[in-house]
Amino acid sequence: MNRAPAPPITAVAFDLGGVLVDWSPRHLYRHLIADDDELDRFMSEVFHREAVLTLDNHASIHDGLAVMAAQFPNDAALIHAYMDNWGKTIAGPIAGSVAVLEEVAATKVPLYAFSNWAAETWPHGLANMPFLDRFDELFISGLEGVAKPQHAYFERALEKFGLTAETTFFVDDHPTNVTAATAIGLRAVQFETAAGLRRDLAACGVLR
Length: 208
Known about the structure:
By secondary structure, the protein is of the alpha/beta class. It is 48% helix and 14% strand. α3 packs across α4 (61-71), α4 (61-71) packs antiparallel against α5 (76-84) and α6 runs parallel beside α11.
């Protein structure tokens, strides 16, 4: 039996950190931890990706850092330094991905940002992402009170903007978020390179 063709994409949603902007706690902590082995230890044991996802799910980033500091008391000073130096977590826009964003914007397909970003650090994001004006709407976890990979994050974003999951393309650098988005029907892909993202957008008819 032949499958019915997939419906055309009517909206494109981008994650921000790791897709359009080079964001990483490592950018910050390399300024605070001189020894490379100790930096590797701290990033693998304390501030790894799953820890950042957990941090995103706290109502306040300060609350999340307090939980982390209680779990790793020997690293508490470094953990709390995160907010004092947060601007150093951003290395700048990812030029290739921003170029793809510009291509999508030129097609007039509606554009959305679906991002985990704490309310306390969002002003830094605004200052470091001049391309945000390309988006029709933004759905920012810290401002909405729900974070990826919760299904409710995507359900609320779709409802808020009147989008249909099956016709919404979504790209994120974290596989857990891609899995969650796919589970509720979004056409989700994991970001690896700008060239790969462009191929994925061409494959579903958004770009040529």
